[in-house]
Design brief:
Helix 3 (about 105-125) packs across helix 7. By secondary structure, the protein is an alpha+beta fold. About 35% of the residues lie in helices and about 20% in strands. The strands form five sheets. Strands 9, 10, 11, 12, 13 and 14 form a six-stranded mixed beta sheet that branches. It is flat.
Length: about 450
C-alpha cells in the first residue's frame, strides 16, 4: 500500500480490516476469561469485531464526467455501506490533492456529494422516459420500478421504500408527472439512505484546523462528523508496539512507565521513553486526547457501523455454557454483524445455506423458541439453531435432529405422504401445509392427532 502527499497516490483500491468495538456478552454471563473469538478479539468485556474497509482513489471535481479517476471511484462505491469522507481540515491540501497553504476545505464536502449525485442522476435521467413508460404499462409499484433501476448501486427494496417515504410519495405514485427537479430530489434522498456519509475531519492538531472545523460545522450542522488525528493514532500504536506506553485503541489515555496510574504489572514491561518521545506524547495528549477525548480513528469506525444500525449477534451450540463446539469450548466464538430487521431464518441463511434449508427452530438466550420470522434485536441476539441434518452430513453448525419417521395427512380430500423424513421436519412441513386450513386429520407413526 502506497502512502504519499501527492494526487492519486491510491489508484487500485486497498482492502483492509479494521475492528469495531462493542460490549461482549461474556461480561454479562461471567465468561470473560473463557471468551474465545474466532475473528477479532475480546479484551475486558469489549468485543472487537472485524469490519472490511476499502480505501479508494479520491475524487476531483468533474469526476462524474470522467475526470481524474472518478469513474473508478464511483464503481468502487457500489460495494460500500457507509462512506467515510476524510477531509483535511488543516488547509494544506487542495481539492486536487495538491499540497498548498490556506485552503478552505468547506467546499470539499459539497462537491463530493454533487459528483455522486451527478453520477446517479445522469444515469437515471437519460432513461427516464423509458422507465416511466414501462412503469405505466405494467402498473407497477413505484418502489419496485425504482429498485430495478437502482439495483446496480447495491440497493435493496427497503432502502428505496425509505427514500420514497421521506419524500412523502404515496401509491399510486404518478411517476409520469415527475419533472427533472423531482427526480433530482429523489436522487438526493436516495444518496442519504443508500450512502450515509461521515465527515472524518483529519489533522485536528494543526494551527488552522479549529477555524476550518468551525466553518464546516456552521455550513453543515446536520452532518455526522468525527474529529481525528490519524498521525497521532499511528504514533501511539507504534509506541505501544515498542513497549513505551500502554494504550488501547479509542481510549483518551495512555500510560508510560513513570505515570502514577499505570498498572504495576504493566509498568514492569514498559521501557522508559527518551525526551524526544516524551515531547511528542505530551503534544498528542494536550492537542488531541484531552481536547477531543481520543484520536477519533476508532470512533470513526464505530460511528460508521452504528449509523447503519448494524447489530452483533452470537451463534452458539449450547445456551448454558455459551460454547460453540461439542466439547463445551469456544465460548462466544462466532459473532456476526447483521442489518436491522434481519429475521431468525434470514440469519440462518447468512451463516450457512444448509442451515436455512434444513432449519427446524431456533432458541433465544432464555431458552425460549423463536419464530423464524422473528426480528433479531439486542434482547435476543444470542441464538442456538436446530436443523434437520445429521451431525455426519451437516457443516452448518446447527444442532441436528435426525430421527426418521413417516406421515400421512388428509385435509378435505387432499393427501400428503412423507416417508423417511426426520420427525421434527415432518412437524414443520405439516404446520406450513395446514396453516390456512381450519380442520385436519393427522396420522403420524400410527398415532391420530386432531
Amino acid at each position: 500500500m502506497q502512502v504519499g502527499n501527492y494526487p492519486f497516490t491510491t489508484i487500485e483500491p486497498n482492502y483492509g480490516i479494521t475492528l469495531y468495538p462493542t460490549p461482549c456478552p461474556c461480561a454479562k454471563y461471567g465468561k470473560m476469561e473463557l471468551c474465545a473469538p474466532r475473528y477479532g478479539r475480546c479484551k475486558d468485556g469489549t468485543r472487537f469485531i472485524p469490519v472490511k474497509m476499502l480505501d479508494v482513489a479520491g475524487l476531483v471535481p468533474g469526476a462524474s464526467e470522467g475526470k481524474g479517476l472518478g469513474n473508478q471511484f464511483l464503481d468502487d462505491l457500489r460495494q460500500a455501506h457507509v462512506l467515510l469522507h476524510v477531509v483535511d481540515v488543516s488547509g494544506t491540501t487542495n481539492e486536487k490533492g495538491e499540497e498548498t497553504v490556506g485552503y478552505d476545505p468547506v467546499n470539499d464536502v459539497e462537491w463530493l456529494r454533487q459528483e455522486i449525485h451527478s453520477w446517479i442522476f445522469n444515469n437515471m435521467w437519460r432513461k427516464w422516459s423509458n422507465i416511466v413508460r414501462r412503469h405505466t404499462a405494467t402498473k407497477a409499484v413505484a418502489a419496485h420500478t425504482l429498485q430495478a433501476q437502482l439495483s446496480g448501486y447495491g440497493t435493496r427494496l427497503p432502502q428505496v421504500m425509505q427514500a420514497l417515504d421521506t419524500m412523502g410519495v404515496k401509491e399510486p405514485a404518478a411517476m409520469e408527472t415527475w419533472d427533472k427537479a423531482r427526480v433530482e430530489e429523489l436522487v438526493w434522498v436516495f444518496i442519504d439512505v443508500r450512502f450515509p456519509t461521515i465527515l472524518v475531519l483529519n489533522k485536528v492538531d494543526m494551527p488552522a484546523s479549529d477555524q476550518n472545523i468551525a466553518r464546516i460545522c456552521k455550513r453543515y450542522p446536520d452532518a455526522k462528523m468525527v474529529p481525528t488525528s490519524a498521525l497521532a493514532e499511528c504514533f501511539l500504536r507504534k509506541m505501544k508496539a515498542q513497549e513505551y506506553i500502554d494504550y488501547t485503541e479509542g481510549s483518551e489515555y495512555f500510560y508510560t512507565k513513570e505515570d502514577e496510574d499505570v498498572d504495576p504489572q504493566v509498568a514492569e514491561r514498559l521501557k522508559p521513553p527518551d525526551d524526544r518521545i516524551v515531547g511528542r506524547l505530551e503534544r498528542i495528549r494536550d492537542l488531541v486526547l484531552f481536547r477531543y477525548g481520543g484520536t477519533g480513528v476508532q470512533l470513526a469506525v464505530k460511528t460508521a457501523v452504528e449509523i447503519k444500525g448494524m447489530l452483533p449477534v452470537y451463534h452458539v451450540k449450547n445456551l448454558n455454557s455459551m460454547s460453540c463446539d461439542k466439547g463445551g469450548g469456544s465460548i462466544f466464538r462466532d459473532c456476526y454483524l447483521i442489518a436491522p430487521g434481519t429475521t431468525v431464518r434470514e440469519l440462518a441463511g447468512q451463516i450457512h445455506p444448509d442451515m436455512e434449508k434444513h432449519f427446524l427452530y431456533a432458541e433465544g438466550p432464555n431458552g425460549m423458541r423463536m419464530g423464524e420470522d422473528e426480528v433479531i434485536t439486542k434482547q435476543n441476539n444470542i441464538i442456538k439453531f436446530t436443523t434437520a441434518v445429521s451431525d455426519s452430513s451437516s457443516s452448518s453448525g446447527g444442532t441436528s435432529s435426525s430421527a426418521a419417521a413417516a406421515a400421512h395427512v388428509s385435509i378435505h380430500g387432499h393427501h400428503l405422504w412423507l416417508v423417511d423424513c426426520p420427525a421434527m421436519n415432518i412437524l414443520a412441513i405439516l404446520a406450513r401445509w395446514i396453516q390456512n386450513t381450519s380442520q385436519a386429520s393427522y396420522l403420524l407413526n400410527g398415532g391420530h392427532f386432531r
